[in-house]
Amino acid sequence: MALPSLPRWSATALLLGAVMFGLGSSDLVYAHAGHVSRGNGCRRVVALTFDDGPNPPYTEQVVDILRRNGARATFFVEGQAAADHPDAVKLLRDAGMAIGSHSYAHSEDLPAMQATDFRYDLGRAEAVLEGILGHKLQLYRAPFGKTSATMLNELRNAGYTSIGWDVDSTDWRETSPDEIAGRVLLEAHAGAIVLLHDGALGQGNSDRSGTVEALPAIVAGLRERGYELVTVPDILDPKVCSASLR
Predict the structure, then answer these.
(1) Domain membership flag for residue 8
(2) 118-169 confidence digits (pLDDT tens)
(3) Helix axes 209-224, 177-187, angle to 10 degrees
């Protein structure tokens, strides 16, 4: 299944689109300098996102739960992990999940890098992922969510949109499955981008069983509250709002 492409529009276009579609100030997409942390709030949609994979067997378990529930999500994968587990990346693609880059090896030094050094890391991950998927990606999430003006400028020049989040599941804190699910369901809102992990938390603990155990309750709870689970490209598409207002 081909990955849907992300429309290329600037932060200015995002904000203008919000005005055009009559969204209030609380519904404006959070966007500045090519970085987006929240989707369109004109429909009850939520984007679950998973960082730091692929990480067998947890990535496969997450995909299995999503597929059995007819849900889609977005996976921000590390180049190094993808090189080690290319079949897991292909599984994401074949399952209809959206895929973004999460750097090559989750270095915490990226925000302090000069442009040439950051371009090297970006290109290194890009070469691995493009080699596996056969096309260039358009989404990028910085390790630890930390960006810099240099990073955002280089990402923009390379055709990427930087993606953050505005709901943190706190699964990175080794919290219990009930706490993970409870946090997501408490803070979910229309247009939310939710941070979860299927991978090793930047070379940390690779056991993501808590996230896997929490996921069915998250999916069921969001749907009970009337939310549709979509990908990041879907939640950022201005046509989502135009269609809902017809």
Answers:
(1) no
(2) 999 999 999 999 999 999 999 999 999 999 999 999 999 999 999 999 999 9
(3) 30
Q: Is residue 195 part of a domain?
A: yes
Q: Which residues of the chain have pLDDT under 70?
A: 1-33, 201-205, 240-246
pLDDT of residue 209: 93
Pairing between β-strand 35-36 and β-strand 45-53 as defined by DSSP bridges:
unpaired
Q: What angle do CA 92, 95, 98 make, to 5 degrees?
A: 55
Q: Is the peptide bond before 56 cis (omega within 30 degrees of 0)?
A: no
Residues assigned a catalytic role: 51, 197
CB distance 196 to 49 below 8 Å? yes
C-alpha–C-alpha distance, residues 173 and 118, integer Å: 28
Residues 192, 119: Cα–Cα separation, whole Å: 29
- What HEC string does 148-166 produce? CHHHHHHHHHCCCEEECCC
Q: The CATH number of the domain where 111 resides is what? A: 3.20.20.370
Tell me, what DSSP letter sits at residue 173?
G
pLDDT for 154 equals 96
* Type of residue numbered 208: R
Name 173's Cβ contacts closer than 8 Å, sequence gap at least 6: none
Based on the structure, what is the number of domains in the chain?
A: 1
Q: Is residue 17 part of a domain?
A: no
Cβ-contact 204, 76 below 8 angstroms: no
pLDDT in tens, 31-45: 444 799 998 888 899
Could you tell me if residue 144 is inside a domain?
yes
Place of tokens 């949109």: 161
Domain that holds residue 179: 26-244
pLDDT at 237: 84
